[in-house]
Amino acid sequence: MKQGSFKIICLIIWACITVFSGYGQANAISYESRVLESFNGDSDYTWKAAASRFITKTDEVTFPILNYVDAWPIAAFGNNRGSNAQEELKSLGIKGGFDRRGYNWIDIYPTLTDDDDGNPYEIRIPGTVRSIDMWVWGSNLKYYIEVYLRDYQGVVHALKLGDIAYPGWRNLRTNIPNNIPQTKRILPTYTGLDFIKFRIWTQPTERVSDFYIYFKQFRVLTDTFELLYDGNDLADPQFIEQIWSNGN
Questions:
Q1: Which of 64, 81, 145, 151 could form a disulfide with 161 if both were Cys (CB 3.0 to 4.6 A apart)?
Q2: Is 24 domain-assigned?
């Protein structure tokens, strides 16, 4: 009788360990901060701009203008102006201007540097994204910035990164809502998100002539934990393509 009870207790303990270990593995988290673009001008991307219809155009200049400038948030990177600086820091400067007030916009989007045609390129974000942040220098203008993301179903989501009605540099951050799908039930469960562009919006009550905005260090906080199981490689699209291409 005692021996039977002991076996039952052992089975219960073993079942609990199995269940909870599996639950713990499925719910493990490994957060990492990843820099998608430093805006130093030395990445794989060339950034371009497009604007709404009332953008200012003259014989001398057509806005918006993009340029890498020797400026950055000291709060994040220090002065770093000496010859012994480990990294030459720059920021992406945007010079804009519109002929009319209103809800005007400027899109800032990446292209691949080696793409001679300059086609828009969507940046794959690693892991399951929890938040996006970027340092932005505002002119105390009543504008705001959105970030555009695409999910695995092709749906585009516009998230407000923040208002820029403040002087100087500030780190703007937005969390990724749970209703934006980044996983699915069937394998492979991870689907991820693609970054499309930033959009700067002007407000109808604010002036829109000759303004400057600067971007520095576009980052994501992402969960890079990968659940491993027997047959894990059969959920990898690249591996699937490889083994099926070797068939008859």
A1: 145
A2: no
Torsion angle defined by CA atoms of residues 57, 60, 66 and 71, in that order, rounded to the nearest 10 degrees:
-130
Instruction: Give tens-digit pLDDT for 156-175.
Output: 999 999 999 999 999 999 99
Please indicate whether residue 228 or residue 49 has the higher confidence score (pLDDT). Answer: 49
pLDDT in tens, 187-198: 666 678 999 999
Query: Which CATH number belongs to the domain containing residue 146 in this structure?
Result: 2.60.120.260
> Where are the alpha helices (H) located in 109-245, listed in sequence order?
237-245
Contacts of 65 (CB under 8 A, 6+ apart): 49, 94, 95, 96
Q: Which domain holds residue 92?
A: 32-223
CB within 8 Å of 103: residues ≥ 6 apart: 201, 202, 203, 204
Inter-residue contact 39 to 215 (CB < 8 Å)? yes
Q: What global pTM score does this model have?
A: 0.80
- Residue (of 211, 137, 146, 133) closest to 167 by Cα position: 137
